[in-house]
Amino acid sequence: MISAVIKVTPEHLSLIDQLHRNPNQSWGESALLSCLDRLQAGGPTEAEEVKVHDGWAFDDGFCLIYKSPWGPTVGVRVEASGRQFIGAHADEPTAAEFGIDIADFTVAEPLGSSSYRLACDTTGLGWWGDRPFPLERSA
Question: How much of the chain is helix, strand and coil, in % rounded to 5?
């Protein structure tokens, strides 16, 4: 049996490594790690379609900068009480379930009409998802 080799960015691998080394993860860090792990594994979209460039967590969510499927590099901000969670895996998700849901149904999906409503930060990076959006590339 031949296993598929998933190509991810060095930044993606570094974020996963950093989060795995933290034994006291916040809810947001656990959700981010779950999202990154799912994207690394492939999920419903080919891993080559999404390239993670940066990410960070906050108390109840996270931000991720990535090259979207068939689109530009963008930032997405998601939070537990926000509108990006689809609820395909759970109605009241754990951090891990939230991260998987965001990977599968937010990050892995083409931007579609969201590409017309991006809010640019000070560097010109377009953001979408749950407001307030970062003004810079780190929070």
Answer: 35, 20, 45
